[in-house]
Each structure stands twice: as C-alpha cells, then as structure tokens.
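Q: My labmate handed me this sequence with no annotations at all. I'd like to see what the chain might look like in three dimensions before we decide whether it's worth expressing. Could you predict it?
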Amino acid sequence: MTGVQTCALPILEIIARKEVNEISKIKKWILIYGRRKTGKTFLVENFLKWDDFIFVNRNKTLFSKKRGNITYEVLLEIITDLTSTIVIDEFHRLGNEFFDVLQRIRKSGQLILVTSSLGISKEIFNPKSPILGFFAEFKLDIISLHDALKYTYLKRKRNENPIIALETAILIREPILLPFLIDDSVSNYSKAIKYSLQTIPSLVGEMFTEEERSLSMVYEGILRAIASGQKVSTKIANHLHKLNVIQRND
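A: Here is what I predict for the chain of 250 residues:
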C-alpha cells in the first residue's frame, strides 16, 4: 500500500509544495515537526510514499491505514523488524518509553515520525536525548510564498489581476484558509477571517511560543491596530492608550 495521491479539496491538489521533493530524497529516518495546522499530516499522507500510516490518538490507541485498529504490541512488532516505510503521526503521545524502544531497534527501513508538539521536538534534539542523531530533522512551516505564487500565477487564469493573485498567494500560505479561497471573491476573504476569529489568535500565540517569546497584550494590540488600518506609530499608541493597554500614549 502506498500513500494516496488524491485529496478532498481540488485546490490542495494544485498547490504543489517543494518540501515533498526534499523529504522524498532523505534516506535516513525522518522527524517532521512544526506548529499545528501547517499541513504536516496532509502532506505526508497524500504526497509521500509509505507502506503503512499509523495515527496515535489522544488516549494512546492506534489506528493503522493498512490494518485498522492495532495494539501497542503490534506497533512494536512492525517497527522492530522494519523493512518498509512506516509513518507514525503524533508519535509523542506514546511517551518517553517509545524513545527507549527506538534506541534499541535496528535502524533499517524508513521510519517517518510526525509531531505538532514543539516541546517534544526540542526534547529529541536535547544533548541528553537517547535518540539524538537518529533522525533527519525537517521542520514544516506554512506554504512557501514561492509555491503559493506559482499556484496563483501559473495554475490560474493568466489574465488574472496580478494584485489579486499576489494577495491570494499571501493568504493561501496559511493552510487553514485554503477551503475559503477556492476563488478570489472579496466575500471569501472576509469569510476566511470571520470563520477563523478564535483560531487565528491561538495560532499566532503558538508561533510566539515556538520562538520562546511571549505574546503580550501590547504586541497583540499592535497587530490588531495594524490589521484595522493604523499605519502611524503615534496613532497606534493613541489607540492602545484608549483601550488601557498602555499607560501612556507615547
């Protein structure tokens, strides 16, 4: 069995990501990591070749695309005698015991681990990690501007307004907005924001956590002020002062 090459949303088939070619050339075991909602699972499941794709649920139960529900013992049997390409998505839910298993088994076949836990990825790269050096590290970010522009300029109507094409390319870099942007109507842009009002701030906060920075009320206030059209620093300061986010408007 290999990864399925079709997908539910036509737009996602068209936006080819350069990362697929990069990952396909890696012969070592691979750890694919990055913040949530960057398309890691979608990319691996639909565009990489694999013999089995195993997903770890929050309660640590396991589901195999090839075998259905499996036990942890069956998973150990699969990876202990690894001769094919196996993907384990959200592997961090298996706990540190799984790290010890990986340290013991023979380094054959192709093992691809996928995680959205930035804490776990840092733990793996820690100098004291028992599996340090076992994996090629691949951080998957949002869709590159190059890939997005390639879609908007080459895959769409060539007589399209270049400004709209550029604006669309910037927006579709964020995978969670793709379902809203199958066409370029202004109403779809507004819907993309309207139906993501709680999701977007959470993802922004996660980006700050990834960089080991804190998303303060002041910083979020500045982002929101810019998004609402404020372009001059003095006006932004006044705006934040009126909201009692800062004590002085200077």
